[in-house]
Description:
single chain; FAD/NAD(P)-binding domain; 2 domains; six-stranded mixed β-sheet; EC 1.8.1.9; oxidoreductase; FAD/NAD-bd_sf; membrane; transmembrane
Amino acid sequence: MSHHHATPPSLTRHCDVAVIGGSAAGLAGALLLVRQRRSVIVVDDGSPRNAPAAHMHGYLGREGAAPAELQAVGRDEVRAYGGEVLDGRVLSVQREKTGFRVELSGGHALIARRVLVATGLVDELPPSTACASAGVVRSSTARSAMAGRCATSGSCR
Ligand SMILES: Cc1cc2nc3c(=O)[nH]c(=O)nc-3n(C[C@H](O)[C@H](O)[C@H](O)COP(=O)(O)OP(=O)(O)OC[C@H]3O[C@@H](n4cnc5c(N)ncnc54)[C@H](O)[C@@H]3O)c2cc1C
């Protein structure tokens, strides 16, 4: 029995467009691109902003669905046109002569002519005391989370 501890080979793949982030925006962008016959690789590390929400509301055609369901359908639609969706994290993007080098977790890389950044937003809620003084109520429900976001973009930031 051999005891090799060789580092697994790192892969470098080429594509027309590397999409960073594979949630609603990234997958929608990827779908348009694959329909235009571009080779597309989406990289997503699975932490969408609405991760705490069990159901989506007000999203036409998917009222009450789980966010993960929309993402799964979106991935299938992109893949149906030949797009690829990878689980992983983009660590860096560097400009090169003919495009971009996109470094991925795991030591792999993409060489892409274009990069579409769809990494979403991260909520940075202020401390509870600051919220209270600005009249913001913190809650785990989607509705009040979004209301809180609007309020915090003003004086409470
Ligand atoms: C609690 C809550 C409830 C919500 N409920 C609703 C609702 O009911 N209806 C509605 O219409 N909207 C709702 N929203 C808003 C909705 O979630 C956002 O509008 C939507 O998620 C934005 O999509 P996005 O693709 O721009 O970003 P996100 O969904 O945040 O996706 C960004 C993706 O990029 C990935 N990513 C980030 N950095 C990297 C990286 N370096 N490498 C690889 N991947 C990366 C993340 O893992 C993530 O999957 C809700 C939001 C919140 C916070």
